[in-house]
Design a protein that fits this description.
It comes from Lentzea tibetensis. By secondary structure, this protein is of the alpha/beta class. 23% of the residues lie in helices and 23% in strands. The strands form 2 sheets. The chain has a 6-stranded mixed beta sheet, with helices on both faces. Helix 4 links the parallel strand 7 and strand 8. The structure holds guanosine-5'-triphosphate and magnesium ion (MG). The site of magnesium ion (MG) has 6 residues, from helix 1.
Length: 198
């Protein structure tokens, strides 16, 4: 983790006890990444949404999210203070496969990731989980409960996606700040348990 306090050490207003770090919010198309960053960020999030057009018909599956009219074409960015001396900078990935080439740049320097999954489309989670497994970046799985329902139990999700028992799988509502903040707290705790960060 790096000290993210702006300005020179000793400058007025600079708190050297403040630590800032980078977190990635990833997952398949339309699982709620932009919603997650927007609900938890204490600054107006930076978004890069583009309108979905006719060109995406047959390419992007909107059956689970029929009200979705935009998609992220580069990244989401937000900030959240977990407590008075820990600031997280959140980077949300684009979900469409054609933009996945950006993921490697987006994860550079991150201490961990939230992988959001939608239990109605569990198979979409394989590729994002593989991505973080391959790079050995700590991650937690956030199960975004669309319509308040989890279509599979936590242990069924773990089995289906062959997720290691040490990886937290946490139900959430991406629209709810308390819920998304809890996931970030669990991610930081999970990342701190990794031998490479101790
Ligand atoms: N009912 C419900 N709708 C949600 C929830 N989270 C997101 N949505 C809706 O689902 C749609 C997709 O949300 P986004 O946040 O754009 O998803 P995304 O993962 O950023 O999508 P891409 O960037 O296109 O991959 C939007 O219409 C949201 O309003 C949720 O927890 N419950
Ligand atoms: Mg998005």
């Amino acid at each position: 983790m790096s000290n993210g306090a702006p300005g020179r050490p000793g400058s007025p207003g600079v708190d050297l006890n403040v630590t800032s770090t980078k977190i990635v919010v990833a997952g398949g198309f339309g699982v709620g990444k932009t919603t997650f960053v927007g609900s938890v960020s204490e600054i107006t999030p930076l978004t890069t949404e583009a309108l979905m057009t006719q060109a995406s018909v047959g390419v992007d599956d909107l059956s689970a999210t029929p009200n979705k009219v935009t998609t992220t074409v580069a990244m989401d960015f937000g900030r959240v203070s977990l407590d008075k001396d820990l600031i997280l900078y959140l980077f949300g990935t684009p979900g469409q496969h054609r933009f996945w080439f950006m993921w490697d740049d987006l994860v550079r320097g991150a201490i961990g990731a939230v992988v959001l999954v939608d239990t109605r489309r569990l198979s979409d989670a394989f590729a994002p989980i593989d991505f973080f497994e391959d790079r050995e970046l700590p991650y937690v799985v956030g199960v975004n409960c669309f319509d308040g329902k989890m279509h599979h139990r936590t242990e069924e999700i773990r089995d289906a996606l062959t997720i290691d028992p040490s990886v937290p799988i946490i139900p959430c509502d991406a629209r709810n700040r308390q819920s998304t903040k809890q996931i970030l707290i669990q991610l930081v705790e999970h990342a701190l348990r990794q031998p490479s960060l101790v």
